[in-house]
Amino acid sequence: MINITAEELRRFGPVYEPIPSFNNEGDRSFTEQDLDPGYVPQETYLSARASLVRTCADGLVSCLNEEGEYGILLITRKGNPAKDQLWSIGGGIPRGIVGPREALNANAQRECGLKLSNHVYLGAMDFAWATTPGETELKGKGIRDTGLMYYAHGTGDLRFGELDNNPLIVTPNMWERRQGKLNELHPYIDRNLEKAMTLLVDDFYR
């Protein structure tokens, strides 16, 4: 149980949130669009994935369930890492996007069709996964990620991408009762969902 109020979460979020920075180093012809590498061949991507640390922008997003109650959207991961686990939406920050909020917004549109607003930075976690994608000649096994987690309001019609299925909108009542897979959450999701639920209740249930 994390003993922190919604007011404190909103006050401290901006203090600890990573600050996006675009540096053209004096070359005015260099723009953010120049960062976009375009299509990356699968062999190149898998090699990089196996050898580098990837930064992810993730979101515990509020939305309405079929009964008209607000909750936090979770999906069940189809692919590794975290296969078959309840997880937040989000993912890797593409080179062509500067800033985790912007990356999360783009990922949310692609993954579930929601437009995000009212972001609050919740915290970060460093991951060492056992998953090793593809064939690699590298000595090491597994992959590395750093996750940056946000709470945000979602609006729009839910529709899901190929890596996500079985959406679950966790209401405060469901979170309080904690049954089934909600008792088996990864610490990254569990810890931040507690904070997101505090904000959700303050936003929609008071």
Q: Can you walk through the features of this model?
A:
The chain is an alpha+beta fold and about 210 residues long. The protein has one domain (about 5-15, about 35-205): Nucleoside Triphosphate Pyrophosphohydrolase. The chain is about 30% helix and about 30% strand. It has helices spanning about 5-15, 40-50, 100-110, 170-175, 185-205; strands at about 55-65, 70-75, 85, 90, 115-130, 145-155, 165-170. Strands 1, 2, 3, 4, 5, 6 and 7 form a seven-stranded mixed sheet that branches. Strand 2 (about 70-75) and strand 3 form a beta hairpin. Helix 1 crosses helix 5 (about 185-205). The two termini are about 20 Å apart.
Largest sheet: 7 strands, mixed
CATH class membership: Alpha Beta
User: What class do helices, strands and sheet pairing give?
Assistant: alpha+beta
Strand content: 25-35%
Oligomeric composition of the shown chains: single chain
How far apart the termini lie comes to 21 Å
Portion of residues within helices: 25-40%
Which homologous superfamily in CATH is the superfamily? Nucleoside Triphosphate Pyrophosphohydrolase
Give the number of DSSP strands. 7
Low-confidence stretches: none
Outline type: globular
- SSE ordering: HHEEEEHEEEHH
Number of DSSP helical runs: 5
The overall number of domains is 1
For the record, the CATH architecture stands as Alpha-Beta Complex
Give the mean pLDDT.
92
| CATH domain fold name | Nucleoside Triphosphate Pyrophosphohydrolase
